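Hi all, long-time lurker, first post. I run a small reading group and we've been trying to get comfortable going from sequence to structure in the token notation. Rather than ask abstract questions, I figured I'd post a concrete chain and ask someone more experienced to write out its structure so we can walk through it together at our next meeting. Sequence below, copied exactly:
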Amino acid sequence: MRSVPTHWSKCHTVRTGVAAALVLGLAACGGPTPTPGSDPDSDPSGEGGSGPIELNILDVGGVLAFTQPMIEAYVADNPDLISSVTFQQAPSTELSGLLQAQQESDNLMVDLVLSGSDAIGAGIVNDLWDPISDNEDAIPAMESYTEEAQSIYDAYDGNALVIATEFTGPILEFNPAAVDDPPETAEELLEWAEANPGRFTYPQPPSSGPGRQFLMGLPYILGDDDPTDPENGWDKTWAYLAELDQYVAPYPNSTGSAFENLARGGIDMMASAAGWDMGQRQQGAIPLEFEIGTIEDWNWILAGHFAAIPAGLDEERRDVVLGLLDGMLAESFQVGIYGAQEKIMPGPAIEGVSLEDAPSEVQDAIEQYNRPEYEELFEAAPTAVELPPETMSVMFSRWEREIGS
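-- Answer (accepted) --
Happy to help. Here is the structure in token form:
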């Protein structure tokens, strides 16, 4: 029986000393300054080390929403290693340029990046990461990776730690008052969109998980020659998207804005993903009576949530960060993912952790907003890992050039 990831997404307040863009942009203003905590004169023990560090974590993928409480607990349990932690947020599309500016000016002000696949992939392309694969001995908890977590880690060549996994989509989300006969095949979706112009859409894939999962799922649905090769193996997919483009509403630039449009009746149906669906239900952003559906011959697209170490950390700070990463794969941390947002997506990255390990009040809260059909869908549908970074970049470029322009 496949392990079923389980968790939700409810916004937590993020403590931010200064805006992430301003902090990251400091590298471009003036000469380099010492990395925080690297000054030997700051040693509180007088024994040659720098003492506990001030840890700086940048989130560009919403990962703090289900990890911040457990990170804070780890910091509280390790005062000899970490004196305090500052959480910052920035758009994923800005990460590469901002982090490169810090690295090139020798003014690295970020110790750890939390992200989805998009920014991790961009960082791989731009050589921004200190690969986890070079430091696996410091993270023994990785030996307990689930099959899904290991496959995602391998797909990204060990550049970033997988801290949670998610069976994402593609699914269809719709208002049943407006869609009384939801499409069940790709051809039926196209026919519905043609009959109801401007009432279906999917978010722009470069800035939306559900958007890119819709694209990555279509080659399996349509029976393309090679679902892993968007340049040479997606003839049916690109032709389908071009035809669908005639009837869709404008492509939203974020998943959140697509859901807002669905909730207010601007559209009747959209491409969605399980985690987003359950999170929007829990937050009251969409009515509970809205329904989901799947398309014949679909695959779950398996995605990861990552923690990555920027290249250029000094050895002492890297060792502290590696200790935190090992702690993020501890059973208590992974079980805490369920309670942090009270939903079943994303789910644990290690074996032996399930929703049944969470407190009963967490299980009861999740039951309120979960859809019973997901359990069957998790078991019944096959899975495919998201495209690797370089290939996903090809997919984005071609979509922007041929469809989204």
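A couple of things your group might point at:
DSSP finds 15 helices and ten strands in the chain.
The CA atoms of residues 14 and 301 lie 29 Å apart.
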